Structures are given as C-alpha cells and as structure tokens.
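Section 3.1 - Work completed
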Amino acid sequence: MQSKAVKHKKHAIKVAKRTVRGGTSLSAVYKPHFDSYRRLFWLKNVTVIALICGLGLSWRLWISSRLFPLSPVSRSLPALAFPFDYFLFFLLLGLLAVAVMVAQPRRLMFAVLALAGILSLWDQTRWQPWFYQYYFILAAMAFCGWKKSGEKNPQVALNGCRLIVIFTYLWGGLQKLNANFIKETWPDMAGPVLHFLPKAIEKIPSFAILTIPFMEVAIALGLATRKYRNQAAVLAIATHIVILVLLIGSGENSVVWPWNIAMSIFVVILFWNNREIGVRYLISGDRFLVLAVLLFGVLPAFSFVDLWDSYLSASLYSGNTDQAVIYVSPAVIERLPKAIHEHIWQNTQPYFLDINRWSYGELNAPIYPEPRVYKSVTEYICKLAGDSADDVRLRIKDKPNPFTGVRKSEYYDCKHLDSEP
C-alpha cells in the first residue's frame, strides 16, 4: 500500500504537470505546491488528533443524558435521549479516527462538520474556544484543501487557517488588556507555580503583567509579516510552553492542554520558514478567506459591546467575560441532587451555587459565559427547587470595567428569567 505522503506527492506532481502545460516551469511549481500539500497533510492530522483529545477529555459535555443541563439554541429542538446521544458522540469520534488514516478525507470532513455542527446546536456550552477554532480549520481544509481542480486550493486552505491562528493571538491579547486580568485572572492562573519562585518576583509591578497580552499581539503581528515570522513562531511556542506548565501546575482546565500543544504545532506547520506568503496574499483570493476575516478578525470586536459572544472572541483566561452565581437557601439545597452540593458555597451565608465550578466538575469544561446560558441553567435549578423556587436568585456580573475591574450586577428570580434564545 502506498503511504499517505506518497499519495500527496503524486497528487502534487499531477497538479504541477497540468500547470507546466499552461506555460510554467516544473521547478517553479513543484516545490512550493508539494510543500503546501505536505503542510496540509500534517495540519489535518494534528487538528483531528487534537479534536479527538478535546472531545475525550470533555466527553460528558457531548452527551445529553447527564445532570448539568443543556442550553440548546432553541427549545423546539427534540431531546437526544440515551443511547442516541452516545451513538452520535462515538460516531463523531469514529469519523475523526478514520480521517487521520485517509490521505484526502474531503467527504469525511464534511461528515464531521455536519455531525459536530448538529451536536453543537443542542448545547451552547459546547461552543468552547478550542472547538470553534478546530471546527473552522477543518472547514477550511474541507472546502478548499482537496478540490480536484485548481493548483491554488491547498494554499487557500492554509491561508484560511493562518488567518484563524493570527486573529486568535490578536484578540487573545486584546481581550486581556483589562484590570481584571491583572488583579484576578493572572494571579489565579499562575499562583500555584509562582509560589515556588523567588519572592523577589512578587515585587514586580502589577502593570508588568500587561506584557503578556502585548506579547500575544506581537505574535499575531509577527506571524502576519515575512520578516519576523520565524521569531514570532518561536515566541508563540515559548508562550504555550509557559501556559502549559501553569495549567498543569494548577491542575485546571485539562481540556485546553491539548489545545496549547496543537497551537504550537500549528505555528510550525503554517508559518515556519514560509517567506512566500505576505499580508495581501493572506486576505485575498477566496470567499473562505473573507469568512475567516469576518468570524475571527471583525466580529470579535463586537464582543466589547456585547454584540458577539466572548468565547467566540478568544476571551478564555482574559478576565473579560460575564460571571454568575445562583443564590440558594438551605431548603433549596435539600432538594438538589447530592452531586451538586460540592459546588455550593455553604461555609457562610449567602449560600450560592458556583455555575462555572459545577461545569468544570461534571463536564471538565467551563460554562459558556453568556447571560442566556446562565439563565438556562438557573431555570433548571428552579425546577429542581419546586416549592422553594422563590429562594433561588441568579446574579450575573457583567464584564469588568477595563480600567477599574469593577463589575455591575443584575439579579433575576425564577419568575423573570426568560432565557429563550
């Protein structure tokens, strides 16, 4: 049997020969074109394997028969009961596993996109930042990467993925430019590891933490240029190594550990020693590139005025998302399943259910931090509370003021939730 790399090479040669007949020399076409197919081959495998890891680490997130409530895009969607939910989940994993073994899995990719898209409609918490990014990287390859005609197809797919990665770094940095990231998010994230470092580090001014978001912005700008592309790639890899050490040290959010590894490899595959692709070429030539610019470059700006979702705007670990807790009484606590009790603060009053901790504890993934999802979860608690539903109150803390970190709060009781999407 021929290896996958050999199949890619033969396909690249065929396309190159067609181009030669059109008047271009083989030496001018073959090498860059084969290089594009090689990058596409590795990008496909890394993305698929990373997605399998993410799905496996958060498997309860992808089934319906669980305690943590689903937040579908519409209540009119029919329930996906056991064992049908498990069947769809393992079908998705199976399609992804086969995609790794197939050299040009265009049809498989479309099947994966369709099934993953359907599952995401039943629960908005599944719209995790890593899933969103992987989904559109796979879409770029499916729609542009393995077309039978056109020698530019693999390059268009790669450029779409390059835009996705660049904008992820750009908005990831811009989202962190707020006081809350300095005061709360970074200390919580880095605390367990910084505890072992020399105490002199504690004397570093807090505003020095802003070098982290500025570094992410610098990575994005560097990757977009020819001259500083390799340097930006090295900086990106070093950044992900540090983040991975911090996450592992704290034991938090293991579902994004593979994402950090994947992002490091993406940078190498898409940008390392690539001097041919400039900014103008990145944003021209195909409708998918326009879509990538819109979804990952333009719409995230609207998250700052609550017109686009935070997790679709690279805001993970930024401190720039809505937060919420559900206040409950002892009578309500008695009516809730025992598995929820460990996520309820009961040391002092007021007692409250930490929705995000509950999501981490059961799904191994953070809650999708949007008011409509918080309200949907609270509706479920109201149903469980029964006659004690009057003791349930949802508190949503808005995104912080970027300069002071102060958050405004809104309160809802069970009678005034109205979370219908």
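Second construct:
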Amino acid sequence: MSRSDVLVGRQPIFDGRREVYGYELVLGAGPGAGPGAPAGAARDWANGRREGDLLTTRLLFSSLHVGVDRFVGDKVMFCDVSEELLTGDLALLLPPERTVLEVPTAALHGPDALDGAADGCRRLVEEGYTLAIDEFSWFDGAEDVLGLFSFAKVDPRRDGVDVVGRVLERCRPFDVRVLVQSVDTEGDLGVSEALGVDLFQGYLLSTPRPVPGRVMDPSEFTKARLAAALLEPDAGVEQVEALVRADPALSLQLLHMAGIGAAGGLRRTVSSVREALVLVGWRRLQAWVSMLLLAGGRGIPEESMTTALVRARMCELLGWHVEGGRTEMAFTVGMLSGLDVLLGMPLQDVLRDLPLDDDVRDAVLHHAGPVGALVADVIDYQLGHPECATRSGLSDADLQIACFDALAWGIEMTTGLDAATLT
C-alpha cells in the first residue's frame, strides 16, 4: 500500500491549561486506494453504518509504515475501533501505552451486542490499551461496562448542554473523564468549562485570539522583520545575518540550533553567525522564526505553532496549481497568515510595518488574488470545513495529499527546533 493510499489528519485534544493532551487521528482514502479499499465510513455495526470520512481501523493498522510519531509526536493518539478489533478478527499493533481506542456507543446497544463488545473491550484493556466510549449517551446496561472505559466523549452541540451535564454526573462514580468535542470557539470552551469538563477536542487552538491593545515589543518586532526577510525569495544571507546579529538573543539561539544539528543530531562546532545560517538552511530558519514568535511567555500551546507551519507548507505544496506556479509566494502568504495565532494580534497590526509586497499583503489580509484564494481554502481545510475550500478549484485529493505531507513536515520541524528555541 503506497503512502497515497492512506491520508492522515489529526484534531487536537487539550486540557484545561490549553496544552495538547493528544490527537484523534482522522483517516481518509487517498487517490491510490484501490476499489476494494474501505471508503466513507469508520464502522459497520449491526445497528447500521456510520457515515463520515473515516476509514475502518483495518486500513490504519495495515499502514503502520506511515509512522505514528510523524503525526502525534510524543502525545497520545485516539483512534476509532472497528468491529473486527472487538471480535479479535484483527490484530492490534499500535503501542498500548500511547493509544486510546474509541468504541462507539452504538456497538454496545442491545444485550447480544453488549456482551460481545464488553468481552472485546475487556480483552483490549488486558492488553494494556486505554478505551474511550464515543458519542456517549446513557443506555440500559451502561453501568455494567462503564468501568472498562477511561474517557467518555460527548458533543454539547449534538446532545445539548443539559445532557452533557447529566453524563458528567453519571460518569463520576466510575472515574471516567468526560471529553467534550466540537470546541471550536471561546464560547464552546466557556460552556464546557462551566460544566466542569477538563478535556476538550476541537479547532480552538487553530484560530486567532487577538489581545486588545497588545503591541509587539522591540524584540518581537525584530523577529517579525526577520520573518519577512526569510520569506522574501530575493533576500540575501547578508540581510538576514544583519538582523540576527543585531539581537544577541537571536544570535545565541541560532548558534545553538546550528550546533545541535537537524532534529537533535550529533553536535557540531559553529564559528560564526554566517556559518550557522548556512548549516541550518533556509527552510529550517523559516520554521525557527515561527517558533521564536511563539516563545515569549504568553503560554500559547505548541499546537498553534505547528498549525502555522503546516498551513505554510500546505500552501507551498499546492502553489503549483496557481497560475505561474507561485509556490514561494504561497508559502510566504501561508506563513504570514498564521502570525495572528502566534502573536495574539490582528494581522493588520502585525504586518503594518513589515516591508511586504502589496500583492503579498493583500493576499494575507484580504485573501485577494489566486494565492490569497488558495490560502483561504487551506485555512478552511485546517479548521475542519473542507466543504468551503472551493475557491481554488482544488480537489479533495489535492488537499488531502498536501495535508499529509505538510503535517509530517510540520511535526518534524517542531520536534527538531524546540530544544534550540527554548534554550
């Protein structure tokens, strides 16, 4: 099975401190999937087929060469469970200590289904796996199996706030943590926090939360100027070197990053800022600047930075669809469009004093022109609204493949740069 046969996305699950607890893997069929590959549904239970864009667990577990760490880093992963896993017809190969398996409530309805599914759940727990009950609502016999689960997933938009409150009360005696889905806005988070929930899933961390009246301090402005220079195709090493040398902290961090090598490899000796720039490479510098913009004590989770990197890379990969093959401009606009998330400021304020081309500025602020339309589509896709990503005429397969590659790249860059940035 080729890489294009299985395309993996992820949605963050975060705790009350807005730190990422784990990710739910979202699977889609790539253009290389053969006619026999399962498509369009995650599970096929006796009560009917659940529609959606998830594949059966078989596809994930037969494609482990993709590499789990490429998509969740060192976090916990949440995956859907197929009926085959509960019956023992399919071997489970994922690491138990890092895997939460989601069993749909529908699999537990009815006496026969309940007994069979409960046996399967007990076997998985004995093998060391953690279980979550998905789309949970109370049913006859729930008290007999709830002790097997560590998490119960609920959705206030679907079930109503009152129902979620009752679920919380009923789960407490079983020491089951309630995880609220569809947390995409501050309002969603506020409702969930008021209920006493401490785990949330959604795209909240991928959206900007501007702080009124906030301005960039001088150090941040230097970093923003450096970002603009790095994103300018015609910028020379001399220009970038001058900006880095003007800030001792930047120079120190750059030298440290060059010294540890790519992704924390063997240490090496670096004798100058110029040599460090050459060793690190242009693309890693671009990612580094995004991390620098994050590092300022504002408590923005790493997920926001990864989101910005993935957006820029997706735009670059899709840029060849734009007339003239504007991949470099697409990367630039995609990266700049995420600075409001990183800095907590409106984009127009972030970009006001940066030396940007008018076409780039308009594409970032107003999604003007072909590149601006492309970036708008990528943003919608990232936020879980692929049905809105229609401005550029891109197919679902185009977006899925770009997301797959960009996500792996973004996580790799984050992992490789984190130690250097925070030193």
